[in-house]
Amino acid sequence: MKAKKPAFAPFENEADVVEVGRLALENRLDRITLSGDVDLTADRRGLEQARLLHGLLGQVVAALEAKDLPEQLPPPEVKTVKNPFG
Amino acid sequence: MLQKLFSRAILAAGLLAAAAAQAQLQGASCPSHYVGGRAPQITNPKLAPDTRALCFNVFGVTHSAITRTPLWSAEHLRADNVEAAQDLSREDSFHAESRLPPSQRAELADYSRSGFDRGHMAPNGDMPDRASQRDSFSLANIVPQDGENNRNVWAAIEGEVRKMAKKEGDLYVITGPAFLGSNLRQVGKVLVPSHLYKLVYSPRQKAGAAWFIENQGDAKPNVIPINELERIIGINLLPALSERDKERMLRLPKIREPKRRGRG
Q1: What is the pLDDT of residues B107-137, one digit of tens each?
Q2: pLDDT digits (tens, 9 = 90+) for B11-68
């Protein structure tokens, strides 16, 4: 029942995804997205899931603390182009 | 002069038709994902060039090198497959589609710092096994989707479809982007769809309908008949059905307005 430590390198790639219950953590270069939900139940399973999340968020905090952070992210890079199907 | 123009037009039309026919031919290689075994047919000739059909175990995709997204992802959802195995946790990874050449496909870098979610078309939550879960993270099954839309209203639609599949026994589902309007947004080399659709067809009721929604955070989904969706997007999604069949509306569940933090 013990969950192994997932390979999750916060802010270092756009690939890693970890799902705990229906809660997904998605790794991006400029953010970690948490979406969905999970019940951390008062049983062995809940404890394992809580430890896993705690570990992952610890990694996120450590990665942010190690960075030289701006006050706020710059706005996203989105272009406007002519619709090729229009 | 006129004749020359005319013959050139015929040539161009012929090439487009050939490209469309090829795409459909390849689509036919995973017929089990489609109603009557027949993959959608592109009717707007501008959508047809540089498309390629890709088969995965439980869904089929037709990918466009112009948009670097799927044009649709098709699934045959079965009640027994929808009962998700509840693992403690699991790992996945978004990845470029290795069967597509780099000149045609989206890369992870196209989405980075874009502000958009990587929105699944065939949802991860529908996948019955680990291999298919991994498949669903191929960028050939992904479009740039507004994050608020993806995580709220769209997630609710996906949940309702799974509930319906359990009730109906099985459902055919086709999900994809629409690229409408004179201008589009683009992230990296990937076009951002203006809208998204999810078509649901129940073989038991012999009826179908689709949700159609703007790719925006505050958008509300409209429920429309199959043939109206097909006209809007320029794709005959269910070529096995007659126009008459397509008028039989399936009742789709109402999507509850998701509660958003800070607003109630």
Answers
A1: 999 999 999 999 999 999 999 999 999 999 9
A2: 555 555 555 544 444 445 799 999 999 999 999 999 999 999 999 999 999 999 999 9
Backbone angles phi, psi at A63, to 5 degrees: -65, -40
pLDDT in tens, B195-211: 999 999 999 999 999 99
What backbone phi and psi angles, to 5 degrees, belong to B164?
-60, -40
Are the beta carbons of A80 and B183 separated by less than 8 Å?
yes
Q: How far apart are CA B45 and CA B18, in angstroms?
A: 11
- Chain A: residue nearest B178 by CA? A85
Interchain CB distance below 8 Å, B109 and A33: no
Q: Which residues contact B215 (CB under 8 A, 6 or more apart)?
A: B145, B146, B149, B177, B192, B193, B194, B195, B196
Q: Round to whole Å and give the CA distance between B207 and B62.
A: 24
Taking the Cβ of residue B259 and every Cβ of chain A, the question of whether any pair is shorter than 8 Å is answered with no
Contact B90/A at CB under 8 A: yes
Residue B63 annotated in active site: no
Q: Using alpha carbons, select from B145, B119, B124, B150 the residue that is nearest to residue B135.
A: B124
A39 touching B (Cβ < 8 Å): no
pTM as predicted: 0.89
Interface touch B88/A49, C-beta < 8 Å: yes
Q: Which two tokens stand for residue B76?
A: 């045959």
pLDDT tens profile B164-192: 999 999 999 999 999 999 999 999 999 99
**Residue B216: strand pairing partners:** none
